[in-house]
């Protein structure tokens, strides 16, 4: 299986008043592919996954697979409170031909290597052939595993092929994991909305998982960095930061607002509890988007 690298955005979930919007999801996938992304992630925290019913989740994942047409790898989120639920999500993904699963260990089992190892070994036993991306999210949402705990888990669970490291600060953790990683670990992926992407890349991260709204900017940054054009990459990074700082607060509302501004989505409906955007916040977001420049505001075909 090809190593995951580059920009792997987490797709948001588009809603209408009556439920989820599969047609809008197709537009989101098309936008991502035309932006040149290297893979897609669904569902994840940025997808408002905890608000989706089982039927909605399955329907949207099938839409993502059909719309992607095998052009880039798809990583399916499979995090849940129990091994049984993770396995159920994993089997559903495998039915759609997806074999890479992102799993955040449940907080209920604690942050000890023994408990996390046992949890993931049980998952791997039920899902042979699956590659696990161990998501190490910060507290209060995640378990905030130490680099030592992550390494112990990775050494003992061969199915863990990647770590998505997004504790704060992520950079030192990425360095520590890669300095002592076993051979079967294919890489460490950055999170945190790409707010620290250059530090993550400098420390050896193989990919990043930002939100979707400025995927074209993130792809341009990634390509410039990998081509050795560090000044160009940093200029794009600096331009993106004001918007990403606001995204850390307004989360899915900002993502959907920007995607409406860019003509991809029709509305900004969210289900997850998220701070509302007042007129001043909207003006600030629009100003930040405008300052990113022509790359972010490029015309995108959504048909």
Automatic annotation (TrEMBL):
Swiss-Prot/TrEMBL keywords: Lyase
Gene Ontology terms, MF aspect: 4-hydroxy-tetrahydrodipicolinate synthase activity
InterPro entries according to UniProt: Aldolase_TIM, DapA-like
Pfam families noted in UniProt: DHDPS (PF00701)
EC number: 4.3.3.7
Positions bound to pyruvate: 209
SMART domains on file: DHDPS (SM01130)
CDD domains, per database record: DHDPS-like
Matches recorded under Gene3D superfamilies: Aldolase class I
TM region positions: none
GO CC annotations, alphabetized: cytosol
Domain of life: Bacteria
Family: Belongs to the DapA family.
Name by which UniProt lists this protein: 4-hydroxy-tetrahydrodipicolinate synthase
Lineage of origin: Bacteria, Pseudomonadati, Pseudomonadota, Alphaproteobacteria, Hyphomicrobiales
